[in-house]
Design goal:
Elements: H1 42-53, E1 56-61, H2 63-67, H3 86-91, E2 94-101, H4 109-128, E3 134-136, H5 140-148, E4 152-160, H6 168-176, E5 181-183, E6 190-191, E7 194-195, H7 197-209, E8 212-214, H8 220-229, E9 235-236, H9 253-261, E10 265-269, H10 272-275, H11 279-293, E11 298-301, H12 320-329, H13 334-362, H14 370-374
Length: 375
């Protein structure tokens, strides 16, 4: 397992954004006065109350990346130097996590398929050995059930497109093993040029199965073609506003508008590189996405344990109340906060399941191959 993991202390983000991240000079992070939030602050008290009713559904957790090389660990005790463990998740009012199935750079084909299977096996093992804190979930009902039982729902994915090995049969096998999100980048059929005919067939089969498309880091051509082909909503699990910060994985306003119109979800990452070095910077991105795409289009992505640097006051998974307190100070209605933290993800999961049930009535599993369609 160890040879399939990146080092814990790497500075790049996990997943497809490894190849897209930019190294910004220190000058873009000018020092500015910053007053830490007081634990007795009234908006912070309100934030805890709102999150108790509407916990965070986090779009990207990198725990599989850091746990793989370790011989043992106990996430219930919170005794390791991770950003994420059960005590921190409870303190941060996190109700669900999408677990990134990290692949090392430069592997594809059978090695990528095998590495993804090992990541799914690791995820299942972690959840099984922490039954008091974690529970596997594959749809909106199971995430709600986990929350109601005092557990954090763990949703497998996103995985890289390379995990399919260019095979729809592998996609179905990965879905049967729990995969629920696939990132449409880094494959010959989902490239800078957009989706090929086989790529379009992958999206249709994902719709039939109930696997959500993640478009963070995808080219504008791939994003727009996926909007046209997919009958289910899409996710951008790690994308903020490019108008505020010119990171290649952030979305320009025109794509944010189209994402909102398509019922998709932009999950803003809590990373200094993509959103900025303070809580206020993250809140600025959330304000912008809500304004441009609508309150039903914005979510959160902690990206904890991916190797990314995080803004001040948002150093680990326990810190979500401080971000929500900042939004409440800005006048966010509690109903909009509830959509941001929990409601929008639940809606996307429900819509994906509804689309899958309808598609399965109309369509048999696709037997198309990349040679058939793109050869």
């Amino acid at each position: 397992m160890a040879d399939l993991q990146d080092d814990l202390h790497t500075s790049a983000e996990a997943g497809e954004l490894d190849d897209l991240s930019v190294r910004l000079p220190a000058e873009v992070f000018p020092p500015e006065p910053y007053a830490p939030v007081s634990d007795h602050d009234e908006p912070l008290t309100r934030a805890h109350a709102v999150l108790a009713a509407h916990p965070v559904a986090d779009g990207c957790c990198g725990l599989p990346r850091v746990l793989g090389p370790l011989p043992s660990y106990d996430l219930e005790l919170g005794e390791y130097s991770f950003d994420t463990d059960v005590p921190r998740l409870r303190e941060g009012h996190v109700g669900a996590l999408f677990w990134s199935l990290h692949l090392p750079d430069g592997i594809d084909g059978d090695r990528a398929v095998g590495a993804t299977l090992e990541q799914l096996d690791l995820l299942e093992s972690v959840v099984r050995t922490h039954p008091e804190g974690l529970r596997l979930a594959h749809d909106a009902g199971q995430t709600t059930d986990a929350r109601n039982c005092g557990r954090v729902a763990v949703v497998p994915g996103p995985a890289r497109a390379a995990a399919l090995g260019d095979s729809l049969g592998v996609l179905r096998c990965l879905h049967a093993l729990g995969l629920r999100v696939l990132t449409l980048t880094g494959a010959s059929w989902a490239s800078e040029a957009g989706l090929t005919r086989f790529g379009e067939e992958v999206v249709r089969e994902m719709n039939r199965l109930g696997v959500l498309a993640d478009l963070s880091g995808a080219s504008a051509e791939t994003v727009r073609r996926t909007f046209a082909v997919s009958k289910a909503p899409v996710l951008c699990t790690r994308s903020a506003a490019r108008a505020l910060r010119p990171h290649p994985a952030n979305l320009p306003d025109d794509l944010l508008v189209e994402l909102g119109a398509a019922g998709g979800l932009c999950m803003v990452p809590l990373t200094a590189e993509q959103t900025g070095p303070t809580v206020r910077d993250v809140a600025d991105h959330l304000d912008h996405v809500r304004t441009v795409a609508g309150p039903a289009c914005v979510g959160l992505s902690g990206t904890y344990d991916t190797g990314a640097a995080h803004p001040l006051e948002l150093g680990d998974a326990s810190c979500y109340p401080r971000l929500i307190a900042e939004l409440l100070r800005r006048g966010w209605a509690e109903s909009d906060v509830a959509l941001l933290t929990w409601g929008n993800v639940q809606r996307v999961l429900r819509d994906a399941a509804f689309t899958a049930r309808a598609a399965q009535l109309r369509r048999e599993p696709s037997r198309a191959t990349i040679a058939d369609l793109d050869g």
